[in-house]
Amino acid sequence: MNSNFKKFVISLYKPVKGLTIIMIGSMIVSQILDLMKQYIIKGIIDLPSMNNFNIGELYKVIFILLGVIILELIFYYISNITRTIHMVKKQTPYISEKLFSNLNRKTYSFFTDNYTGKISSAINEITNEVTNLNTQITSKFISLLTSMISSLIVLYTININIFITATILFTGIIISRLVYFSKKYLPYVQKAEEYNREYNGILNDAVLNFTSLRLYNSVEKFSKSLKSKKEEANFHKNKASSKEFAFGAIANVIYIIVLVILMIYSVYLFKNNMMTLGSFIFFINAMISLKSQTTSFTWSYIHIGEIMVKIKNSYDLLYSRNTIEDDNKQNITIKTGKIEFKDISFKYNKNYIFEDFNLTVNDRQKIGIIGISGSGKTTLVNLLFKFYFPQKGNILIDDKDISNYNTNSIYNNLTYVPQETILLHSSIYENIKIAKPDATNKEIINAAKKAELHDFIESLEDKYDTIVGERGIKLSGGQRQRIALARIFLRDSKIVIFDEATSSLDNNTEFKIQKNIHKYFKDQTIICIAHRLSTLKDMDNILVIEKGKIIDYGVPKYIIPKYDNKEFILENV
To answer: Is the model's pTM score more than 0.70?
Structure first.
């Protein structure tokens, strides 16, 4: 595991450094007290056989034992309460915020190349597995390690030969098991996790689009695909388990052989008065405890390894792929809405969409764009938002090359209204407010009015608190688009791009909204990609794009009559 990943894991404990020390320290103290408890019990067993024994000494030792037991329980509960309540309370929200905020640094291709479910599963997995890691470290790993050391100390006080033999046996089992785990077990676990993530991605995608699957009678096909992914995951997981069980069987045979030898040796010592009854009992107890502790300790290590594999896989997805590396670039400040595409050449794959493309949109100018599907209209928008980067040329806003500036600061100065509006599974109010998180109630209502949405909202039973459903499924296409339009009125940025943003509206509503856009956006630069030429009648100019080239350009009264009967444009824009 590389240094960046280690730094990442350490960073997850930033808000809980003190709590982590308390959690681990309390567990260590608890186990040290457990060792003291064993010594006291051993003393109680041997006390009656000592010369000058009196019952008062026994009472004294019992009270000391009770005190140690109480302290052990106190520190044990301090550790567990810290882990299960205080750590979870502070750490999991911090991790969720950190991981989700990191998505803001991902490129556009990151979201187009990965399942939505795969991304959300990675965030949830890191959050959940860190909680599991805390449990394994304290309740298992630290606890068992301290207990094993305690048991070996007990054996050391009983007999040096038994101590050396037991130390070699159990240390050998642990080390060989961990090496075996790393080479034979872990690779299968990694493979299983990869298939599980694919499975979760397909499942979330299928559930999100279940209606379409049902309509096209494809549910059975996806069910088989899900089954196949889960079978692959189980195959590799079972391979890992079979490797571990094989090693465990060999380790247990060796343990039994050594245990028999040591037990015969201890009987010999006890028979010849070289070992007390208390020591004999504690030898048997320590050997049985060490067997259980060794097995649990190695499994704890294995589980920690599995947890780290899951966190590493999710980390690789969220942090190591398609990341925008411009955090250190300065923020752009836009005073005018002038946009320039200078000698732009761009291709997605082999064929260029644009070659030496040039376009200037002046400050406060309103430009309409039409063209057949694949002509490059939406690609222009993608380049302007830095979703993709041109192979050649420069894109300037306010005479500033956007490649030299922080991407998020550019987004703060642009507003984009897509053809398909995606809404959050929340209220209408919250879905409008997303455009300006600090907006007042009055601002949101005014934005809804400008988008011809307020009257519709007021007709609903819950009004602005109406839940729109996942992706806005409870609303019509036109209603969803009006929410998107309300966002632009609320945001009030210098540059606004409409990508067929009124295509789902009826003619009357579209006319009202267009009127409001021109009324309230007099100081904005507007780029409008439209399906209906009538939508562009109030633009300053309209340009026609074909195969990445501007084939015509002019005022609406020139362009609209010329292309009004060009059905191939109207049908395929």
So the answer is: no
